[in-house]
Design goal:
This protein is an alpha+beta fold. The chain is built from 19 helices and 20 strands.
C-alpha cells in the first residue's frame, strides 16, 4: 500500500531512482527524464519486460528517488551511486575497484609515478584504468629508464644528515633531489615529459630530446648527448609498436562487446593522433541480460566516470539510448565537443569490426578458462565423492596443520576451501598452549578440540536466538576434514572429534612424503592416480594449510627474535619494548632513530633513549 501511494506521488521531473528489496538493500539504480513515467513502467504489465527486469521487480519492496535539475545531472548522480552501491541488477564492471591506474603524484614537490587501485579526488594525475598490473608495471619500468625521476618515498623536506642516495642515483636513473641536485622547476619539466609519454605524445618528446641532444653536442658534452640519443631511440622503439590506423589523426576510443550468458567482454582500442596506442579488455557481469544498448551505455558511464582522458570520438558497434546526454556529459569532462558515433562504413567501421572480433575471441577464451577452472574445483570435489565413498559432494573442506621449531612457537593453521577454492576470510590460526616440546599429536588434538568446541558453543548460542548457524565464526562445520600428516595424526583427530560427540564429519589425512591418503578405519592408504583432479585438490589444500601455518610460525619467531634483542638493552623493560615496537615497527627503524625521535616514544626518558643508542653504537652527541 505504501508502494502504491509513492507511485501516485512521483514527480514529473528528471532524477535518479533507487530500488530496494525487503531488507532495504539497494538492488537497482536508474535515471529518468521523468521519474513519474519511468518508475511506473516497472509496475505495469510485465509481458514486455526482459527476464532481468521481471526478476528485479519481483524483489522490489520500496524505492527512493532524488530530483535533479537536468537529465545530465541525473546521469552523473546515477554513475556515482552505481559505483558506490554496486546494485545487484545493474550492469557492473566486474571487480572494477581492482583495476590498476598509473598515478603521477603531482601533489608532491618532486612527484613520483606508481601503481594505484584507487582514484582519489586530489591534485594528482591518474592514467588508466588498465586491465592488468603487468601492463602498468611494464609501462612504469619503461618510463623510469627514459626519465630520471625518483622512486623513493623519502620526505625530501626532512632529509637527515648523512643520508645516502639510492641505487637509482648511482646508475643515472634518478637525479638525486634528496641531495638537492635538481630544482623543483627543472624536475617539473621532466615530469611534464612523463605525462606527455603517458598521453602518447611521443613526437613532442622526441622534438624536445633532439633539442637537448644538439645543445649538449654544441657544448662538447658528448657523453650527455649520447645518453639523450639512446633515449630518443627508446622512444622511437615504442613508437614502432604503434600502428597508424586512422588518417583523421584524431583521439578516438573504439568499443565493442561480445555478450555471454553470465559475463560479457568489452574490447577497447585507444587511438591517439591516428595511432593505435593500446587496447584493453574488461569483463562485465551481465547474467540474464542481453540488452546490448543498456550494457554498452552502462559500461561507457562506469568507464569514463574515472577515466583520466576523454577522446574526441567514441566509436561503438551499436546505438545506445542515452547517446546525446552522454555526449554532453563527456563534453563537459573533456572541455570541448565529444562525439559518440556508430560508423556504418569505411575505416571507422573496420576498426569497430576489429574490436568486435577481438572481444568474441576473448569471450571464447573466457568460457574455456571457466570450464577448466570448474573441472579443477567443482569437478575435483565431485571426484573426491567417488574415491572417498562420500554420500555428498564436499562443498566445504577444512584442513589443519601444525608448525614449530623443535617445539618452540608451536602454532596451528585452519584453512577453508569452498567449492574447490580457498575462502581466506574463513582461515583461522591458533597458538598451541601448554604443550612442551615437538608433540604434533597432542598439538593436533588441541587445535581440533578448540576449533569444534568453539563451534558447538556458537551453535547453541545461535539456536537459542533462533539465528542461522552460518552467522558465527566457528559454528559452520565442514563437509570434510583434511589433516596434514599420516595415520597417527588422523587417529588423533578422529579420536578427539568422537570424544566430543562429532561422528558425522568424515576425516582424512594426506601424508606429504608419498601423497598417501589415509581414511578412517582403514589400515592401508587409499590409492589415487597421480593425475587425479581430486588428489590434486587435496594437495593444494594441504600445501595451503602448511603455508599458512609456516607463515604464522615465522612471524612469531621473528617477533620473539626482535624482543630478545631489545631485552639485552639496559633500562628497556617489557612496557618500553612494546612501546618501541608499536612506535617504530622494526629493529632497523629503532636503530636508525635519533635521540629526539626515541624520546617521543611513550614512557621513554632521555636515559633510556641514550641506552638504546649506545647499544646500537650510534653517535648521540648533542
Amino acid at each position: 500500500m505504501i508502494l502504491e501511494e509513492k507511485l501516485k506521488n512521483l514527480p514529473d521531473s528528471p532524477g535518479v531512482y533507487l530500488m530496494k528489496d525487503e531488507i532495504d538493500n539497494i538492488i537497482y539504480v536508474g535515471k529518468a527524464i521523468s521519474l513519474r513515467n519511468r518508475v511506473r513502467q516497472y509496475f505495469q504489465s510485465s509481458k514486455n519486460h526482459l527476464p532481468k527486469v521481471r526478476a528485479m521487480v519481483a524483489n522490489i519492496r520500496d524505492f527512493e528517488y532524488i530530483i535533479t535539475d537536468s537529465e545530465l545531472e541525473a546521469l552523473i548522480l546515477e554513475c556515482n551511486l552505481i559505483k558506490k552501491h554496486r546494485p545487484k541488477y545493474n550492469v557492473l564492471l566486474k571487480d572494477d575497484k581492482s583495476y590498476p591506474y598509473i598515478v603521477v603524484t603531482t601533489e608532491e614537490d618532486y612527484p613520483r609515478i606508481k601503481l594505484t587501485r584507487k582514484v582519489a579526488k586530489d591534485k594528482n594525475l591518474y592514467y588508466g584504468p588498465y586491465s592488468s598490473t603487468k601492463v602498468v608495471r611494464d609501462t612504469i619500468e619503461v618510463i623510469r629508464k627514459l626519465f630520471p625521476i625518483r622512486t623513493c618515498k623519502k620526505n625530501l623536506n626532512n632529509i637527515k644528515k648523512g643520508d645516502r642516495p639510492c641505487l637509482y642515483y648511482y646508475i643515472n636513473q634518478c637525479q638525486g633531489p634528496c641531495l638537492g641536485n635538481i630544482s623543483k622547476e627543472e624536475y617539473r619539466k621532466v615530469i611534464n615529459d612523463v605525462c606527455k609519454f603517458l598521453d602518447g605524445k611521443y613526437e613532442d618528446i622526441i622534438k624536445e630530446l633532439r633539442e637537448q641532444m644538439n645543445e649538449a653536442a654544441e657544448e662538447l658534452n658528448f657523453e650527455k648527448a649520447a645518453s639523450i640519443r639512446d633515449k630518443i631511440l627508446s622512444v622511437e622503439k615504442v613508437m614502432e609498436t604503434q600502428k597508424i590506423v586512422s588518417v583523421d589523426m584524431l583521439d578516438q576510443d573504439v568499443i565493442a562487446i561480445a555478450l555471454g550468458e553470465l559475463e560479457s567482454i568489452v574490447q577497447m582500442f585507444f587511438i591517439r593522433n591516428g595511432k593505435l596506442m593500446g587496447s584493453e579488455q574488461f569483463v562485465l557481469d551481465t547474467e540474464n541480460d542481453n540488452d546490448i544498448k543498456e550494457i554498452l551505455g552502462s559500461f561507457i558511464k562506469q568507464f569514463y566516470l574515472t577515466a583520466s582522458f576523454i577522446p574526441k570520438e567514441i566509436l561503438l558497434q551499436h546505438e545506445i539510448d542515452e547517446a546525446k546526454v552522454i555526449e554532453r556529459w563527456l563534453t563537459s569532462r573533456r572541455g570541448n565537443r565529444v562525439y559518440v558515433k556508430v560508423p556504418r562504413r569505411g575505416n571507422k567501421k573496420k576498426l569497430v569490426d576489429m574490436a568486435l572480433k577481438n572481444s568474441l575471441e576473448a569471450l571464447e577464451n573466457l568460457k574455456q578458462k571457466t570450464l577448466r577452472e570448474e573441472e579443477r574445483t567443482i569437478g575435483a570435489s565431485e571426484e573426491l565423492t567417488q574415491y572417498l565413498d562420500l554420500p555428498y559432494v564436499p562443498t566445504r573442506i577444512e584442513a589443519f596443520d601444525i608448525s614449530n621449531t623443535q617445539g618452540a612457537n608451536s602454532v596451528a593453521s585452519m584453512v577453508v576451501f569452498e567449492k574447490g577454492k580457498p575462502n581466506k576470510q574463513e582461515y583461522r590460526r591458533f597458538r598451541i598452549r601448554g604443550i612442551v616440546g615437538p608433540d604434533d599429536y597432542s598439538s593436533m588434538s588441541q587445535v581440533i578440540m578448540r576449533r569444534f568446541k568453539r563451534g558447538l558453543e556458537e551453535k547453541k548460542e545461535l539456536d537459542a536466538k533462533d539465528r542461522d548457524p552460518d552467522e558465527g565464526k566457528f559454528s559452520r562445520f565442514p563437509d570434510l576434514i583434511l589433516i596434514d600428516g599420516g595415520k597417527g595424526q588422523l587417529n588423533v583427530a578422529v579420536s578427539t572429534l568422537r570424544e566430543m560427540g562429532i561422528d558425522y564429519i568424515p576425516v582424512i589425512s594426506l601424508a606429504e612424503k608419498f601423497d598417501e591418503v589415509f581414511t578412517e578405519g582403514k589400515e592401508e592408504p587409499l590409492v589415487m592416480p597421480k593425475n587425479s583432479l581430486g588428489l590434486q585438490l587435496l594437495q593444494r589444500i594441504r600445501d595451503e594449510a602448511h603455508r599458512f601455518a609456516l607463515t604464522y610460525h615465522r612471524s612469531l619467531h621473528s617477533k620473539n627474535s626482535i624482543r630478545s634483542i631489545l631485552e639485552d638493552i639496559p633500562h628497556i623493560g617489557p612496557s618500553r619494548r612494546r612501546a618501541l615496537l608499536k612506535h617504530f615497527g622494526s629493529i632497523k627503524a629503532i636503530r636508525d632513530a635519533n635521540l629526539e625521535e626515541l624520546s617521543k616514544v611513550a614512557g621513554m626518558n632521555r636515559k633510556a633513549a641514550l641506552s638504546i643508542m649506545e647499544y646500537f653504537g650510534m653517535d648521540h652527541s648533542d
